[in-house]
Amino acid sequence: MAMVLLLLLLLFWQSTGLRTLGWAAIAVQVVNMTWPAIFWPVAIVWLGISRLLGAIVPKILLAIVFYGVVTPIGIFRRLAGRDALKLAVFKKGEGSVMVERNHKYTALDLEKPY
Predict the structure, then answer these.
(1) Cα 4–40–27 angle (5° rounding)?
(2) 12 CB-side CA count, 13 A
(3) pLDDT tens-digit profile of 47-65?
(4) pTM beyond cutoff 0.90
(5) Which is it for the CA torsion 70, 75, 76, 78, positive or negative?
């Protein structure tokens, strides 16, 4: 059925040979409905390619996002002197980062947790 869809998409994108692609889509669909096992080798190749792409593409996209977005933002913040975690203050002081918070919870805390 994916092959029929591809042939029909090509039918809409191509200006010449419309009848040939339309008849090819109909023929492939008839074969698909009557003898689907004929597409088994195509399915093996298709699934193999999709598994390969599924293993490679996310790593490439995550690397692009990390090195294209996250790293420049981190470099810019470091050059600007930003310290959102206040690590410099923590390293200079002798106190603990653990803060004791004695808070009595009310119904409003559950309605607006932030």
Answers:
(1) 30
(2) 5
(3) 999 999 999 999 999 999 9
(4) no
(5) positive
